[in-house]
Amino acid sequence: MVHGGLPPGEVRHQKDRRYDNLYRFHVYAQANCASTSYQITREWRTMYRERAEWEKHSERLAAEAKLFEKAKADLAKKKADFEKEKKLEEWGLQGVKLKLSESKDTLAKDRCKWRVASERENQRMFAARTEITNLKARVEELTKSEEDFKERYEEAKSHRERVEVLWVNTVSISSLTIRTWLARTLRLLSSNVTCVSHNKRLRLKSKKGESLEIDLTTERVKAKSAEEARKVCRAALNVAQDNYSEVQSIVEPLINNLDWLQNYGIAHIANSILNSAELYRVVVALTVAYRAVGHRAGYVECAAHVDTALATH
User: Which sequence ranges form a coiled-coil region, renumbered to this chain (predicted)?
Assistant: First the structure.
């Protein structure tokens, strides 16, 4: 028995001991074996109950483990959905930023075009205003010259009438007087011809003034159309500025929400999940359960070794 249950060193030690010590050791060993067998026999009656409770506890732990795996899968799914929504938000924000930059570029181009068109229209308006002023001065000058020509024509006409009266009254004058009278008459006729030519020139200038007035009316119409185009450009510019303000008011909250989500939201969600009381309780329960299972497995293994030893002896 000693050889079968002890290592060689212990066997050598036991051989070197005295007989009474060996006998006492053998008695103690038999007593311990008997008490252990009696204790195992007593506990064997209630071991099946503990076994059933252990199986129920194992089933409950397996169910809790399944729930934990399900919760873990749900968490992974929610995390994937969150990442997807985050990417969608980032893509939407990039699209809005791109539209905003395009609106800025379009607004800048429209503003440059409007400035160039305004400068061009201002130059045209200034040139038209200058031409209108010059035409007004020319019309006034032509009006004054026409009045002068009319006065000279009336004077020549009255002088001719006086000459005709003198011609009737002085039929019997001398040849010298007639020559003098004829010379004066010729001078008057030449002055009359000059007045007629001046009148023709005045009429030509009047016609030219009318054509200038027509050109002036055309320029006024062009200036009016340019003013309407400038008003339309101004309205388009105001609409573009309103659209820019509206887009900016939409983009700013999205940028603020994204910054908050990147800086605080993700960390807050992760901390709330990791620091949750339910997860802590589940982990603690699993730890305690697996520890109890280990203890029971060790006890069962010890009982099996005792049964083997009893069957051997």
Answer: 125-159
Spatial distance between the Cα atoms of 207 and 201, rounded to a whole number of angstroms: 10
pLDDT in tens, 240-258: 667 666 666 766 766 666 6
DSSP state of 111: H
Instruction: Specify the pLDDT at position 172.
Output: 47
Tell me which residue range forms the domain holding 295. 2-312
Q: Rounded CA gap, 89 and 255, in Å?
A: 10
Residue in 190, 213, 193, 209 with CA at minimum distance from that of residue 144:
209
Confidence of residue 175 (pLDDT cuts 50, 70, 90): very low
- What tens digit of pLDDT does each residue of 209-241 get? 566 666 667 766 766 766 776 676 677 666 766
Q: Are 202 and 117 in contact (CB under 8 A)?
A: no
Q: Which of 127, 132, 115 is nearest to 215 (CA)?
A: 132
Amino acid letter, residue 222: K
Distance (Å, whole) CA 289 – CA 61: 7
Task: State pLDDT tens for residues 61-113.
Answer: 888 888 888 888 888 888 888 888 878 777 777 777 777 777 778 777 877 87
- Give the Cα-Cα-Cα angle 155, 190, 171 (nearest 5 degrees): 80
Pinpoint the alpha helices (H) of 261-276. Answer: 266-274
Contacts of 299 (CB under 8 A, 6+ apart): none
For tokens 């429209």, the residue is: 110
The residues, ordered by sequence, that sit 6+ positions from 261 with a Cβ below 8 Å of its Cβ are: 86, 89
Report pLDDT digits (tens) over 115-128. 777 777 777 777 77
How many CB atoms within 10 Å of residue 212? 19
